[in-house]
Write a structure and sequence with these properties.
single chain, 770 residues, alpha+beta, Immunoglobulin-like, Double Stranded RNA Binding Domain, 4 domains, five-stranded antiparallel beta sheet, 10 helices, 21% helix, coiled coil, BBS7_hairpin, WD40_repeat_dom_sf, WD40/YVTN_repeat-like_dom_sf, Bardet-Biedl syndrome 7 protein homolog
């Protein structure tokens, strides 16, 4: 692709709401068929639309076939396979248990009703013509079709046999089937919410791979026939895209992480990934509407040929933001057309306009009179459409309010229910200890009301253009209103929570529909909401600062799971009670970098952490829940006093950066005052400050850090039973003195963090072992 290429948008079609990867190209538009693109789309109404696109300059959409909407037949996934002679076969999963197959001309040739499924079909893949792989929320099934299946066009239930079955310990978010060239067998791969990719073999998990986030999209790259390796791309809800190289043997699998993009910074959730192997271009579609084109470098082989090197991270080439959440991307016409579909069902294309000089050497001469005629006709058409839209709106408003009069009847029937609108929402934790809340509606959003019964900090997002107003009150509850601009269908805001306080976050979404209606979204904020699942080995240094909490009593695994679900995110909804006698989880704090180990079995629950505040929060929460259910428990607590200094050392880099920013801000204020008397000196000082300033990587304030340090020592006294030494008034009186102590002992000296720890221990009257 030319570096100077520009992406030009052309809107083609509008269908209903769509799910991920439900737009597929039957014919990508090669030169053999005159660049005509044939594609198929399935939406939430259950309708299948197959259409063709002619080459430019024509933008007409020709419908090949279209099925009627299917009640309760939402299209969750769609696949295009090919038979022996290369004819395309459209395979679609409808509703919860139906799979149908259509030819390229719309004739149904296959139907499969799986009444034995306990979960709806979320992912499926058919390896033509016998293997059917199906995934629900937690359950994976592998079925085998008998040869007479394809002769019975609409009912094939008697011709299917179950072959393999697997229950995932965590919710399945993605599924793909690749091929093992060594054993000559297909390999099913699932991605799960517990930040693992699982490679399945028969009815067991053969291998687990840790990912850089919660994976939600899987894509397998083609490989040469001589290599036994498979390159697997995955995208995460945190916006990362990474590549794993899988080396298959007869009985083992070796996995290696090659790269991840982007290395730093925030990106929206990855919804779809595709790649053009011939040019080495990687296409990524995100939930905020951003379409990114990345390119891999080429390497020169010993035989003189050029090879796309996917082992090295790609480079961003260009991007385009359509403003709506992407669900599918198809590469057509040898990469010159990017066919995209959004959550609301808008299908559009991005053409590549190469900036060649030849485009300007032969300009097209168009008559001014013809151009004026086209413009006038377009204006007339727009006016007619606006009048028609206003009539429809007025009719709908009268219909919903019951004001339509009929000649025969006094009043015609009116709608008795409020119109329903779908909202696509997500609340995602990022590495900077903040949550991104994103909402997307199929209709324009008028306003969003945020209500919380716990303290939260709302941070306005760059992508949010809404007008923000906060209800000031002394209580810890938060009530804020965001008034959106016209035609806004996507809303995004950044927020931060305080660990130790669990509560409920409610969002009231009002749209611009008539009559006015509202939907409520409820999110339960956990006590340790800033922790995420982790599988890395704990460093030996941190093991010397472990605090241990052991709770034992007359409770079972289900009770332990319920307690953990109330305290921590990313806890599975279910566990295997038959095969699991002991379960272990590992967590990492995104705010403080401390770890948490959890091990539980019947009658015992063990927590280990190098952060004493984490132990205190868990002890309070679980004791409270056990008391509610009248479960008798006993608590054994081991406190490591040296962990206090260890936690301060974890916070020291953040503390140092924020204090440096505070000092720079004070200097900038002084320089502004200097502009009045010495403008030249002030200007030179301003330029020097700008050149020496570092980008801000931390998005919380000093008061929050001071609160963390204060809570750390207060938790120590509480767990040691020394709360009588510190009354509320005594603590409040010490806060100013504590802040002065911290600010005076944070500088660039090498051993300054040790001095700060000693000063803090002396301030709180704590004697630690050396």
């Amino acid at each position: 692709m030319n570096i100077g290429a520009k992406l030009n948008r052309i809107d083609y079609l509008q269908v209903g709401l769509t799910s991920q990867n439900t737009l597929k190209a039957l014919s990508p538009g090669s030169s053999d068929n005159h660049l005509t693109v044939i594609a198929v789309i399935g939406d939430h109404s259950g309708s299948i639309h197959c259409f063709s696109l002619r080459p430019e300059p024509s933008t007409l959409v020709n419908t090949i076939f279209r099925t009627l909407p299917n009640p309760n037949g939402k299209v969750n996934c769609l696949q295009v396979a090919r038979d022996v002679i290369g004819s395309p076969k459209i395979l679609i999963a409808f509703g919860s248990s139906m799979i149908r197959g259509y030819t390229g001309k719309g004739k149904q040739f296959f139907g499969l009703q799986l009444n034995n499924l306990t979960e709806p079909i979320k992912h499926f893949q058919i390896i033509w013509p016998v293997d059917v792989y199906i995934c629900g929320y937690y359950i994976y099934n592998h079925y085998v079709l008998t040869p007479d299946t394809w002769t019975d066009g609409k009912n094939s239930n008697s011709s299917i046999q179950s072959k393999h079955f697997y229950i995932s310990p965590s919710k399945i978010t993605g599924f793909i089937v690749t091929f093992n060239s060594v054993s000559k067998r297909p390999v099913p791969i699932i991605s799960c919410e517990d930040r693992l990719i699982r490679i399945l073999k028969n009815s067991t998990c053969q291998y687990e791979i840790e990912t850089c986030g919660i994976p939600c999209v899987l894509f397998s790259l083609e490989r040469s026939s001589k290599s036994s390796k498979v390159n697997l791309l995955y995208g995460t809800i945190e916006g990362k895209v990474a590549l794993i190289s899988l080396d298959f043997g007869f009985n083992e699998v070796n996995a290696e992480h090659k790269w991840q993009i982007p290395d730093k910074g925030y990106r929206s959730q990855v919804n779809c990934i595709t790649m053009m192997e011939s040019t080495g271009e990687l296409y990524i579609g995100r939930s905020d509407g951003l379409i990114e084109v990345w390119v891999f470098m080429e390497t020169l082989e010993s035989n003189g040929s050029l090879l796309i090197n996917v082992d090295q991270s790609p480079t961003l080439l260009t991007d385009y933001n359509c403003g709506e959440s992407l669900t599918s991307i198809c590469i057509c016409r040898e990469g010159t057309l990017i066919l995209c579909c959004t959550f609301t069902g808008l299908i559009f294309g991005l053409n590549r306009d190469q900036m060649n000089s030849s485009n300007y050497e032969q300009p097209q001469i168009v008559s001014n009179r013809d151009m004026e005629h086209k413009i006038n006709s377009l204006k007339t058409e727009i006016d007619q459409l606006e009048k028609k839209l206003n009539r429809k709106r007025e009719f709908y408003q009268n219909l919903t309010s019951g004001l339509i009069l009929n000649k025969k009847q006094k009043n015609s029937p009116s709608y008795s229910t409020l119109p329903y609108f779908t909202i696509n929402d997500s609340l995602i934790l990022h590495d900077d200890a903040s949550y991104i809340l994103a909402l997307e509606s199929e209709v324009a959003i008028d306003s969003v009301i945020v209500q919380s019964d716990i303290p939260i900090e709302l941070i306005d997002s760059e992508r949010n253009s809404a007008v923000y107003s906060l209800n000031e009150q002394e209580s810890p509850q938060v009530l804020a209103t965001f008034r959106c601009q016209a035609n806004t269908t996507r809303f995004e805001i950044k927020m931060q929570f305080v660990e130790g306080q669990a509560g409920t976050l409610r969002l009231y979404i009002l749209t611009r529909m008539n009559p006015k209606s509202c939907q409520v979204k409820i999110y339960y904020i956990k006590a340790l909401s800033l922790h995420k699942r982790n599988y890395h080995q704990i460093d030996q240094e941190s093991l010397h600062f472990v605090n241990k909490l052991h709770i034992y009593g007359s409770f079972g695994l289900i009770d332990c799971l319920n307690w953990l679900q109330l305290c921590l995110p990313e806890v599975p909804e279910r566990i295997d009670l038959i095969n699991s006698t002991s379960i272990e989880y590992h967590y990492l704090s995104t705010l403080m970098g401390t770890f948490l180990e959890i091990n539980f079995y019947k009658g015992s629950l063990i927590f280990q952490s190098n952060n004493l505040s984490t132990i205190a929060i868990l002890k309070d929460a679980i004791t409270r829940e056990a008391t509610k259910k009248s479960i008798s428990i006993e608590v054994n607590l081991h406190i490591n006093e040296n962990s206090l200094g260890h936690t301060i050392r974890k916070l020291y880099p953040k503390l140092k950066q924020l204090l440096s920013e505070k000092r720079i801000d004070l200097i900038k204020e002084a320089v502004k005052d200097l502009h009045v008397v010495e403008p030249e000196i002030a200007e030179s000082l301003s330029q020097e400050l700008e050149s020496n300033s570092n980008p801000i990587l931390i998005h919380f304030n000093l008061e929050r850090l001071y609160g963390l340090i204060t809570d750390l020592f207060l938790d120590y006294f509480k767990l040691e039973g020394l709360t009588s030494r510190l009354t509320v008034s005594n603590v409040r009186g010490k806060l100013d003195e504590l802040i002065k102590l911290i600010e005076s002992n944070v500088n660039n000296e090498d051993n300054q963090v040790d001095i700060l720890v000693e000063k803090l221990n002396e301030f709180w009257g704590i004697k630690t072992m050396s």
